[in-house]
Structure formats: structure tokens, C-alpha cells
Amino acid sequence: MDQPVASLPASQAVEVRGPSGVLATLTIPAGPPQVAKVPLTPEQLGPGERADVTVKVDTTFVPAATPQLKSSDTRELGIRLLNAFVEAKGI
Q1: Shortest CA distance to 64 belongs to which of 52, 54, 73?
Q2: Which pLDDT score is estimated for 56?
Q3: Strands of 12-18's sheet, edge to edge?
Q4: 72 domain-assigned
Q5: Is 65 part of any domain?
Q6: In the chain, fewer beta carbons within 10 Å around the N or the C end?
């Protein structure tokens, strides 16, 4: 994940949430992509065959409302999530 807009004033706080609540809180500064590994237990993902995991940012921005970006993009953006997966260990 990354925050590719270096002109934003601050890092963004990111929460990774699962069925059991907050799984991790991360701080994403502007700059190059970084990998965040969040260790999970089966209990955190719940008893089902499927578990929804969400990524929530504390602040968003609209490129068109950020003068230094000189953009007409009116979408509300947060971080850029490049890839996400769950890998089982020790099975």
C-alpha cells in the first residue's frame, strides 16, 4: 500500500478490521509503496469459511480540491491498496 501524493500534509492512519474488530493500526506516510504484514489467528477471522476484512483510512482527500495537484478528479481518495491476501502458515 502507499500514499503516492507527496504534497499531502500528513501521514494517514489505517485500520485493518475483521469480524473480531481492529486487527491492526498502521501509519502510511507519503512515499513509496510499503508492505504491511498483519499476523492473524483463526479466532480473529471467526468460525465461518469466509471472513470479511476491511481497510479504513482516517482521512481522505479530493484531488480537485487540492490546488497543488492541479487535478479535475473529484473522487474521494485515501491510500492506494496495491494487493491484499491471506496466507496460511504451518498447515
Answers
A1: 73
A2: 94
A3: 21-28, 12-18, 54-57
A4: yes
A5: yes
A6: C
**65-79: buried (b, 16+ CB within 10 Å) or exposed (e) per residue?**
ebeeeeeeeeeebbb
The whole domain housing 14 covers 1-85
Tens of pLDDT, residue by residue over 7-25, are 776 788 999 999 999 999 9
Cα–Cα nearest to 3, from 39, 37, 27 = 27
CA gap 77, 18 in Å, rounded: 22
Whether this prediction's pTM lies above 0.85 is answered by no
Mean residue pLDDT across the chain: 87
Question: Residue 52: its pLDDT value, please?
Answer: 92
The domain tally of the chain equals 1
Cell, residue 12: 494517514
